[in-house]
Amino acid sequence: MSGPLAVILAGGEGKRLRPVVSDVPKPLASIAGRPFIHWLLDLLSFRGVKKALFLLGYKASDIISSCGDGSRWGIEISYSVEDEPLDKGGALRNAIPLIDAEDFLLVNGDTLLDVDYCRLLSFHRRMGAVITFAVRPWKDLSRVDPLDVDEGGRVKAFGGKNLMPKDDGSWLVNGGVYGVKRAVVERIPLRRISWEGEIIPALLSQGELLCALEVGGFFIDIGVPEDYARAQREIPAFMASLKSVS
Predict the structure, then answer these.
(1) In terms of DSSP bridges, do strands 30-31 and 34-35 run parallel, antiparallel, or are they unpaired?
(2) Are 122 and 40 in contact (CB under 8 A)?
(3) In this structure, are residues 124 and 210 in contact, taking their beta carbons and an 8 Å threshold?
(4) Inter-axis angle of helices 36-46 and 60-67, to 10 degrees?
(5) Which of 44, 55, 130, 195 could covalently link to 49 via disulfide, CB atoms 3.0 to 4.6 Å apart?
(6) Packing angle, helices 36-46 and 225-245, rounded to 10
(7) Residues with Cβ < 8 Å from 72, sequence gap 6 or more?
(8) Per-residue pLDDT reduced to its tens digit, 160-192
């Protein structure tokens, strides 16, 4: 199948959502009567993704039963299931035998960010980056990681709340969608390791090229109850608007 490979991080327990979602893994949290992950697959399919690899852990069988082989979305879905919690970085390294693309998309399974995925990967390859972030302006750093990005799109700093905002009071923040070079994943140790907390800071300190592409599409993270409630209205409305102009 043509089109980019999307590797979807969907192994977490969703502890912050427990007050409102206690019986299913976070990707299966109900949004307007459908599992969140189904909305994400709708978007991936709409934007041309034809192949997806899920990284699973907590209640993996529930997600596999819900999504199946992906044929209803026109996406060929495969699964990598961790035997013990490996965090995002370890889960990605564990799946390396199933990643057959030199460059691929990495997508958080609890956020929805509308991105031109082909444009992101094209920019990623053109820059020769090991990781490329899809970033967007945001004015609240309570649950997101800001980045310092130069005019050419190169990341100078990641995370930390001491980065100065732009003149309008916003920061460029991580949108939870990345272009990733497979070769950099091969270097990750096969153990429990944090993607944002360990791998990305280490790559920056080693002088590796990390880049960022600013996008302006719809964005929501369902990870806490207040945003989960907001998603019930906003995600169906956004997807309806996409289809109405297609």
Answers:
(1) antiparallel
(2) no
(3) no
(4) 50
(5) 44
(6) 30
(7) none
(8) 777 888 878 889 999 999 999 999 999 999 999
Q: What is the β-pairing status of strands 131-138 and 210-214?
A: parallel
Instruction: Give the residues across from 5 on adjacent strands.
Output: 51
Q: Tokens standing for 31? A: 């949004």
**Where does the pLDDT of residue 62 fall: very low under 50, low under 70, confident under 90, or very high at 90 and above?**
very high
Single-letter residue type at 40: L
Q: Which two tokens stand for residue 35?
A: 């599992």
Neighbour-count burial of 19, counting CB atoms closer than 10 A to its CB (0-12 exposed, 13-18 middle, 19+ buried): exposed
Q: Cα-Cα-Cα-Cα dihedral of 74, 223, 231, 89, to 10°?
A: -30
Look up residue 135 and give its two tokens: 């970033």
Beta bridge partners of 215: none
